[in-house]
Amino acid sequence: MTSPQGPNPPLSGVRIITISQFGAGPFGTMMLADLGADVIKIEDPSSDGDISRYVPPGAEDGDSLYFQSFNRGKRSVLLDLRKERGRQVFEQMVTKCDAVFNNLRGDLTERLGLTYDALKHLNRAVVTCSLSGYGRTGPRASEPGYDALVQAYAGYMSLTGGPDDPPTRSGVSLIDFAGGFAGALGMVSALLEAQRTGIGRDVDVALLDTGISMLTYLAAWKLNSDWTPERMENSAHQTIVPAQNFRTADGWISVFCAKEVFWTRLADGLGLGELKDDSRFSTFADRYRNRGELLPMLENVFATRTTADWLERLDGIPAAPVNSLEAALDDAQVAARGMVIEADHDRFGKLRQVGSPFRTSGVHDDVRRAPALGEHTEEVLRDLLGYSAAEIASLRDEGVFG
Fold first, then answer.
1. Active site includes 147?
2. pLDDT tens-digit map of 298-308
């Protein structure tokens, strides 16, 4: 994805087969496509491809906005892997590719012959990556896993929301996306090794493992001190004070005083300089112990001015407006980072979406929309595998690709 005058992206020349749908796998492989990999997405003709093509809104013609959000820059190949000739085509593709990525149920990777052991006779250096809900081992390996289920299972819902709220899911699919990143990182690491040694390997990533790994300090507190974090009002940090949202005259502001110097600056900015010398609030531990006395004083002052006023007055203190989705997408910093991008699309016209988080020096984005269902089937058969027009027609007649 470069302009003609720029250097190649870091994953140029890497070719990846992906058998994945919905969110986590497609998101992870889209990050790899953003970095220059040739990602070939195999879709099942008998099920009309990736199910996310049909998620509303904007889901006409099997090309939803949801699908566009996870699949830009890829190529789509229709291929029925249950047919013998479909499997033969897939195996030929493996000989031409560096990695095979799937996000099927944990038990299906081996059953469908997508492991390194099943494919190494075709390509000794191929890397295989499985991203599933619960992993390829353990009592839940055969169960489907979705972000919401894993947020529930990994304890996230018990930690999210206010003290009196029911268990609450995050507003975005955090574990899906983190799992996509984990799968991509694991696979790229194995690809680096395969380049050195000529030998590939399996990578097994689970959404549950990803979610549990991100519990970090919360898990450390529970495992080592039996201290259970509480759900806090106003999205407050459990132990750092003040580090939470405060209501202003026209909305909300988020403040995070993770250093003592930020606390003293905040006290001055709020016109409460006397609190700096108050022994009840001198240290992290003091403010944590006496948060019930401190926070009402801060809340009263924050309520007297608008969010914009406070952001100006609290310059140099970690603070941010609590934006709506619209305000976040329209933000000047977001625009300066080029995080809202456009791609030409036959139906949507100028399709706007959020961009890649990666900035690689010298590389200029050439944004490509997500592929239509099976758009590149004949191209891959012809150009990658060397099939003749007659051979392609024969495969079509057999229903190998629809």
1. no
2. 999 999 999 99
